[in-house]
């Protein structure tokens, strides 16, 4: 220990007076050789390392490197949870792109079958549905109630609350494919069709950007169709109170009238506890109104319990106007949503 202290003192003296880093290192090396006759040689490598550390501390102006490293560790410990809650939602995007990659591989593998079959994508849909259903069960313990209210055949319009990330709707589609063998056409926002690489996924799962005529056509052809009247606005700017942001929209009601189909409300308990947004910050609302792009940060991905509820079908009434039907659907949907919203709020207290 005395030898180590002596070398440290000599090193500091060398650095102070000579001011030459290379000379100081060489000086330390010579001093190490001078003490080679000591009975215990195990201290020599550590002494040399200590010399270099002292030089580095003096050079960068740190009195104590250990304190600096402890401070860095503290910052990492503080910010790691914050980083994680913003990274987890991107795992859903990664999962979506993995699904797209699977579709590309599946298509290349079955190119010959495509010429002879109209149901090329059935196997791909069922495979992806199984994978998403597994994700739902493992991460969220996903359950669905009222799936029997979806007709085994024939059209229906499904109206649902839009979460920050509509992962509950993906899980619903998976259940529908697995248990009913049916596909539900979906109305998606325009920006989805601009996302690089998303085209195959949107086509295989029958997502449309929603001209009214196309929606009516899908229903008249006997398909199921799902619409979230609140859309991206509801996804980004609704909050943990589950505010329904339908405004004065009546387009979805007009679609149901023109196609003469029943309307089925749908809501997922705890969807806002799984994923949330920073939509309460005004600048993000201003950005959305200016460019109509979902630039609001999403955080969460928490493994909370999801339960999807399907309400009783609201039958078509001949002669009703779009405004009347929308007014009729909204209170019924609110009445249907409200108990589930209360359950979501109560489950977090």
TrEMBL record:
Keywords: Membrane, Transmembrane, Transmembrane helix. InterPro entries: Plipid/glycerol_acylTrfase. GO terms for molecular function: acyltransferase activity. PROSITE patterns: PIPLC_X_DOMAIN. Residues 143-266 form the Phospholipid/glycerol acyltransferase domain. GO terms for cellular component: membrane. The chain crosses the membrane at residues 74-103. PANTHER family: MONOACYLGLYCEROL_DIACYLGLYCEROL O-ACYLTRANSFERASE (PTHR22753:SF14), TRANSMEMBRANE PROTEIN 68 (PTHR22753). This is Transmembrane protein 68 isoform X3. It comes from Geotrypetes seraphini. The gene is TMEM68.
């Amino acid at each position: 220990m005395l030898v180590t202290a002596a070398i440290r003192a000599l090193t500091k003296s060398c650095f102070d007076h000579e001011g030459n880093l290379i000379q100081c290192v060489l000086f330390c090396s010579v001093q190490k050789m001078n003490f080679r006759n000591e009975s215990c040689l195990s201290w020599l490598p550590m002494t040399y390392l200590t010399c270099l550390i002292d030089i580095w501390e003096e050079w960068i102006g740190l009195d104590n490197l250990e304190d600096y490293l402890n401070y860095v560790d503290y910052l990492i410990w503080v910010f790691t949870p914050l980083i994680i809650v913003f990274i987890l939602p991107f795992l859903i995007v990664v999962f979506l792109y993995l699904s797209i990659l699977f579709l590309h591989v599946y298509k290349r593998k079955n190119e010959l079958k495509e010429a002879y079959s109209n149901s090329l994508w059935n196997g791909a849909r069922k495979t992806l549905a199984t994978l998403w259903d597994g994700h739902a069960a493992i991460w969220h313990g996903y359950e669905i109630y009222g799936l029997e209210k979806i007709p085994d055949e024939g059209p229906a319009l499904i109206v649902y609350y839009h979460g920050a990330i509509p992962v509950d709707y993906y899980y619903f589609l998976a259940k529908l494919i697995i248990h009913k063998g049916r596909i539900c056409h979906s109305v998606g926002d325009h920006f989805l069709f601009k996302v690089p690489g998303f085209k195959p996924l949107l086509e295989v799962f029958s997502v449309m950007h929603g001209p009214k005529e196309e929606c009516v056509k899908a229903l008249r052809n006997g398909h199921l169709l799902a619409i979230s009247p609140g859309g991206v606005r509801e996804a980004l700017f609704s909050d943990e109170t589950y505010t329904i942001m339908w405004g004065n929209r009546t387009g979805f009601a007009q679609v149901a009238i023109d196609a003469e189909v029943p309307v089925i409300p749908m809501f997922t308990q705890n969807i806002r506890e799984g994923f949330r947004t920073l939509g309460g910050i005004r600048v993000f609302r201003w950005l959305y109104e200016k460019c109509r792009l979902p630039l609001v940060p999403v955080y969460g991905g928490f493994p909370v319990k999801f339960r999807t509820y399907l309400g009783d079908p609201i039958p078509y009434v001949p002669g009703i106007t779009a405004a009347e039907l929308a007014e009729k659907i909204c209170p019924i949907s609110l009445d249907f949503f409200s108990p589930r919203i209360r359950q979501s709020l109560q489950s977090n207290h």
